[in-house]
Amino acid sequence: MLVLRKPYLLFLGDARTPVDAKTALGVAQWCPDDVVGELRFAGAAVSTGMPAMGIAEAVAAGAGSLLIGIAPAGGQLPPHWLPTLFEAVDAGLDIVSGLHTRLNDFPELVRAATAAQVQLHDVRHGAWPRVTGTGRKRAGRRLLTVGTDCALGKKYTALAVTRSLQARGIPATFRATGQTGIMIAGSGVAIDAVVADFIAGAAEHLSPDNAGDHWDVIEGQGSLFHPAYAGVSLGLLHGSQPDALVLCHEPGRTALDALPAFPTPRLADAIDAYLRAGRLTNPAIRCIGISVNSSALDDAQWAAYRDRTGAELGLPVVDPLRGGVEALTAAIVQPEETHHDA
C-alpha cells in the first residue's frame, strides 16, 4: 500500500479555476492539519487559503512532500513546472503527483531524487499488490460507498461518514482507492490502476483484519452499471467484503455520464444488484442508506425528494452538504432498525 510523507506543501502552479485545483482544495478541506502551506505562481487565480510559502519556508515548517494539487488539461506536466520540482527535490521533499505524466519518466528528476534520497510518487501508477482475492472473512467491520453512476460523491460521502463515526467515538478509518483520496489519507491503493486479476486482492490488502468494533470506510469507484468501469467496481465490492453499503446518486441524471444509451438504474434495482453481487463474499451485506448530490435541486425540491425516496425505500436519504450524514451513522449504530436486505 502506498504511504505518503506528510505534511504537504500544496503546489498550485498557475491554476485558473477551482476545477483545475480540485485535488489541492480537497486535501486542504479534509486534512488541513497535514498541510503547511501552498505554493502558487504569480497570476494564479485559485487559493486553498493556506499560507503562501516557498520551498525553503515549507521545509523549515516541517513539510515532507510537495503535492501537485492541480490537474492541467490532458494531465500533462508543463515544462515550466520543472524548476520548482527540482528545487523541492534538492531541498529534501518527496513529490506526490496524480498526473497522467509520470514523474519517473523524467530521467534528470529521477537522478536528482536518488541523489537527495527522496521519493517521486506517481499515485496513478503505483506498484500495487499483485495478490488474488481469497474471500476469507476478516475481523472488523467495513462500509463501502457505491454508485448508480460515476462522479456522484462516493469519496466525499466516505470521508463524511468516517468523520461522523469518529465524532461518535466509534473507531473508523477512511480507506482510499483513488488518487485524491490517497493524498488525503496519506495511504491507499489506486484501485483502477490495479491489474484486473488482483483488484479483489488489493481491496482485501487495503482493509485487513481489525478490532471487532472498528469500521473501515472504503472509498468506492465506478459503478456496476457502467460498461467501462463495472469490472473495477465488482472487484472492489468483492475484496472489500462490506458489511454495509451506502448508495450514491444524483437525482435527474437519467443516463450515465457521457453515455446516453445507458439509462441510470432505479435506486431499488441498484441496491438489489449490489447486494446480490456482494453476498458472494459477505452474505450479511446490507444497504444502510442513500447519499445524494442534490446540487440541482432547490431546498423545497430536495426536501420533497428526500422524504419521498426515504419512504419508498425505507432508508435514510442524506446529502452530506445539506444536513450531513448523521442519519447514516445512526443506521450503523442501530443496524437492526434501519437497513435494506432485498
Automatic annotation (TrEMBL):
Kindly give the SUPFAM superfamilies that the UniProt entry links to this protein: P-loop containing nucleoside triphosphate hydrolases
Sequence ranges assigned to domain D-glutamate N-acetyltransferase-like C-terminal in this UniProt record: 132-328
Q: Where is the D-glutamate N-acetyltransferase-like N-terminal domain?
A: 48-125
Q: Matching InterPro entries, A to Z? A: DgcN-like, DgcN-like_C, DgcN-like_N, P-loop_NTPase
Q: Which Gene3D superfamilies match?
A: NAD(P)-binding Rossmann-like Domain (3.40.50.720), P-loop containing nucleotide triphosphate hydrolases (3.40.50.300)
Protein name (record): DUF1611 domain-containing protein
Task: State the organism named in the record.
Answer: Telluria mixta
